[in-house]
Amino acid sequence: MKADAAAPSLWARRLGFGGLIPFVGLAATLWLAPPISWPLAALALVGYGATICSFLGAIHWGLVMRDAQPAPMAPLIWGVLPSLVSWVALLLAPALGLVLIAALLWACYAVDRVQYARHQLQAWLPLRLQLTLVASVSCLAGAAALA
């Protein structure tokens, strides 16, 4: 498979950027809305970030499943780690949970930089970088608003 053949489609880009709306909107809510709305907005932002991190881990299971050869353990183990770390983030105070989610988003991106190249999917990395940047900044902005 050629790398450019695996580039994200227009719909993938639109959906990816659309997926940033909760990150940006909830972070803005923590800065702009009355304090009474902060607990729900913080919980929603941590929860949404945890959901996205779980999704990013699951991609690695999908990559293993599409290969006909015996499944290597490392991608399978990595595939569940974002879910487990996200679960821990949900148990922490919201500001700390948001910092953990931001760090996890970057850890997912770092792993993807290596794994996507192995699967000839490096054409997805510019989109992944943009999405990771906005999502993680939103989480850190939300954490700062709560501090």
Protein architecture, described:
With 147 residues, this protein is mainly α. The chain has one domain. 79% of the residues lie in helices and 0% in strands. It has six helices and no strands.
Keywords:
single chain, 147 residues, globular, mainly alpha, 6 helices
Overall helicity: over 70%
Reading the helices and strands in chain order gives HHHHHH
Into how many domains do the coordinates divide? 1
Summarize the main sheet. Answer: none
Report, as a whole number of angstroms, the end-to-end distance.
Answer: 47 Å
**Helical stretch count?**
6
Low-confidence spans = none
Question: Would you summarize the structure shown here?
Answer:
The chain is mostly helical and 147 residues long. It has helices at residues 10-18, 21-32, 38-66, 73-91, 94-118, 125-146. The model has no long low-confidence stretch (mean pLDDT 94).
Draw up the topology in text.
Blueprint: H1 10-18, H2 21-32, H3 38-66, H4 73-91, H5 94-118, H6 125-146
